[in-house]
# Entry
Amino acid sequence: MRRRRLIAALPVALAWPTARAQTFPARVIRYIVPVAAGGGSDLIGRTVTERWGKLFNQTFVVDNIGGGGGVIACQATVKAAPDGYTLLQAYVATHGTSPATRSKLPYDPIRDFTPVGMIGVTPNVLVVNAALPVQNVQQFVEYLRANPGRVSYGSAGQGSLTHLTMELFKDAAQLFAVHIPYRGIAPAFNDLLGAQTQAMFPGLAAALPHIRSGRVRALAVTGPSRHPLLKEVPTLIESGFKGFDALQWYGVVGPAGLPAPILKALNETLNTVLAAPDLRDRLAAEAVEPQAMQPDDFARFIREDIARWTKIARDRKIDLDA
# Structure
């Protein structure tokens, strides 16, 4: 008798996600951005959700939850119901460098989330103080080898992408340079401009004003291809560093267990938003190139990014929780 009831109920249970997806979204969607309002990540989130909401004919409410390098925002997402009404703007810190450098992270970046799709990517750029007598990556490598222990580089903080990218470069080139961590990219740039440090690997958006002013020199960008805003600057791959395709990235995830029909609706509409030419123009303010992905491809991208930074963090013994 009990078995008959279960069998009778099975079609209803299977139909539930489809029925929910047909009416989704029926109310406001909470979109968590894991940084304070006003920065580049916030701009990206608001730009995307404004268009996404119009496509869905529903409101997205951006909820800025800063603190802990995105940990608090990630925890809020993990605890939410997996119904599509709470989404997180994940990025390289929450689902890349933090999992690699923190052994006691209170969330699992793979198991606790459902990847929805990528938003876009932007490179880091190897820059040096304009007074440094180098014009390209090869000359920079030669200068470091000729001046062991005399070159220092700044970063936005211990375990940040700016830190790990330079460590990846040092590992690939078998070089040494002194790391000077700062509390954010702005003070790191102040000392680079003042020649207290000689090099850095900032994100392109933060570096552009200083490159254009001529106070720092761009030697190479990360990623598989040159960036349209710096067409004259080669990639590190072109400069002889094969596989150096590390990028800053932004994407969307939800809590683990999002129903497949709702995930499909979210991914398809997000990718439609990313295909609009005017969005590319708006995201250019943060040097972000839209890059649509299917959920499975985005999940693979996250796993590979975590693996990349975990290896360099272990090799360099970088553990922020140690």
